Amino acid sequence: MQMPAPDARVMAKKDHVLRRLMAVLPEDAVIHDPTATRAYECDALTAYRCPPLAAVLPASTAEVAAVLKICHEERVPVVPRGSGTSLAGGALPTADSVILGVARLNEVLEVDYPNRFIRVQAGRTNLSVTGAVEGDGWFYAPDPSSQLACAIAGNIGMNSGGAHCLKYGVTTNNLLGVTLVMMDGTVVEIGGAHLDAAGYDWLGVICGSEGQLGVVTEATLRILPKPEGARPVLMGFDSSEVAGACVADIIRAGVLPVAIEFMDRPCIAATEAFAGAGYPDCEALLIVEVEGCPAEIDEQLALIKRIAEGHRPVALRESGSAEESARIWLGRKSAFGAMGQLGDYMCLDGTIPVSALPEVLRRIGELSAEMGLRVANVFHAGDGNMHPLILFDANAPGDLERCEALGAEILKLCVKAGGCLTGEHGVGVEKRDLMGVQYRPEDLDAQMRVKDVFDPDWLLNPAKVFPLEASAGRRAG
Amino acid sequence: MQMPAPDARVMAKKDHVLRRLMAVLPEDAVIHDPTATRAYECDALTAYRCPPLAAVLPASTAEVAAVLKICHEERVPVVPRGSGTSLAGGALPTADSVILGVARLNEVLEVDYPNRFIRVQAGRTNLSVTGAVEGDGWFYAPDPSSQLACAIAGNIGMNSGGAHCLKYGVTTNNLLGVTLVMMDGTVVEIGGAHLDAAGYDWLGVICGSEGQLGVVTEATLRILPKPEGARPVLMGFDSSEVAGACVADIIRAGVLPVAIEFMDRPCIAATEAFAGAGYPDCEALLIVEVEGCPAEIDEQLALIKRIAEGHRPVALRESGSAEESARIWLGRKSAFGAMGQLGDYMCLDGTIPVSALPEVLRRIGELSAEMGLRVANVFHAGDGNMHPLILFDANAPGDLERCEALGAEILKLCVKAGGCLTGEHGVGVEKRDLMGVQYRPEDLDAQMRVKDVFDPDWLLNPAKVFPLEASAGRRAG
Question: Where is each FAD-binding PCMH-type domain found (chains A, B) (predicted)?
């Protein structure tokens, strides 16, 4: 992974920049001690590390604006950071950059049930947004696996999804408005709490822009009434292709489960050893969950089980109690932790048309065999968002490089199947150099011209998303 | 209503332009006879009329591109037109413009149930999109009142909603991708059929841009499985404020009906006389519909009726049969036709926070009395999208002007309440001069700079959306 050389001009005036930052922020909000900045040297893509020039922790929109104004005047790159849970290196610093962490921006600003929204500061964690309203019977739908830790700011940056997104959509479908601080310190409001807005709709452009267009400090989010109940059914199949075909048939039949989760044998085995969820011994497993009142749940599950039976499942078990449901989900939610017990892994993120699942899974199996690295699959099958986990040994010379090469092949396969390079993790640094697989040079140029408009000097998270050669003429340094 | 003077330069070369258009389109696809162009002189905002230079009816994306390329080279303004059902004058021609009608682009291109989408040419009518999939148990959710006639292209241009949007969202929430022809004839694909896309998300900017950024020729739309059943309940109240408070309480309680429709006394009376739907004699009426399996419907309606009873309804009747449900909806769906029997009317479109309904309805009543024009209200109350109908007499001198003045006051009231100038009809020419109520000059300039990027010569629908003085320096002619 190549990163651009630090800008010598910035490094030389480090002390001057720090002094200016310390003049607008409280003492404990500017972190520059080399030991302390180590905490910000990487995000959840831990294979790549680089301590930043400094990290700042502003506690208000005004402080964010003051920081950006200074960095703009001094031409210092800024890397916005939510909770640092990016799996694509979205919050990876460069040595000449200031990390702008939004963790102190974590207040609930407004809860409005008649108008069905909550307004929060963007550093608030995903799960604590639901936490603020669940006592009254409401919830915020997008639920990334990292929801205990990840920040709404990061969810917006990456357009995050989660297990429940089949029914409720991803972040962009649940975001009503943002307060955005531009690189020059200007504060703008985009969207709002109410239906429609009379100008052009910038929310879509901001959501998923990976912190390259501005820093989101506040967000207005759609909240939903909690359904009366939910119940999962567990299905085991003797091949991944058959499980994939079952998913396509469920969707085609016109039921819309709230989640269809997929796990293959390597993942099932690791999870069972770790969490003991009582999963069947099989090649591929689906967890299909439906929501509603008991009668509606009964009827939907009856149809789903009828479809599954047509695919000759080796196991088919409907949850009989709240405890059993919790145990089924505990397994799925422990899957990433369980895989970590097996060794190092890289978690990929790509999307494909649901109908291509069987073929793509078959081809991933072949690629895994060819390259001699094990791949485990655990993902949101209902909306075609795949998360192949490639197992490798970080201490074995050459293993990381082979892992990266296999990852690239799998993502190319997603694009070829009609899908795309990223579902919910973003491009970050991880998939930067693969953008050319999906886009022609003129497409990339058109995308970079959007950044030109929002951030003409390319100071915001500049070394991400675009191949370094493509953005070289635009980045400072 | 002032429109810009026709561009003399364009008028002088009319024959030359027509010859070029006829060279790339079939003979019957270029309409220029003054009698025939009269069919395109207005849309559903019939108070304003102006025959165009010509109207063209291309039948493919390639033909649309050929037309735009010629008009771009000749610097002739183009006004895109779906089915001409705009209530805001979005498809109103200028004398120097070519109307580009997409009515011949009406094919279904692809239906894909496993991936839950339909791809259609954009001139296809809204209702016939559902028509193409309902036999298999699916539907397309946005349902404008004009759905029998209105085109998907127009739905995208105005970000249309409808009665079912409380639960399913408006067009922007159900649009996955478009084929867009730029003013210079370039064809671009934006979004696609599958989850997420790796570049910036332009769909939000295109949806609702009123034909000012490009011409949409194909659209990929989310389709949904039809719910098992639906059932409405009819509620009468002795004041509009109380009905509004009941709506806010229903939403606050965490039920999400598929529709909450509101009608006030003038509208109820006209509708009863016209359609005989059996509506109660009262000041305000709500139709609340819920969906699901029978048990779920029973439970939701029980809660809704309990809330309604707290507001002392003068009538409360749950539908007991499919026939009764149809009759209840027939009344609502005939409301606009019924109002037309009473005389001329102007249909407004604004949004407000749901919680502000009681206060805004009260204030509309006062304004109506002050200005001496009757106002009837019929609208989607659940998401705060209001449609006050102002009754006037087009033959009475000064009545139209008073009607426009009252409309402007009501829309200002919406903005003041925290809402906005348009919910689903767009700005068009109707609300062009009110944009300054919602936006500062620098906000408008920022919006116009977006159009500068997509259409540097301001040839696409140029006299719409922005106040004429604000856009004067940019428009040709």
Answer: 48-226
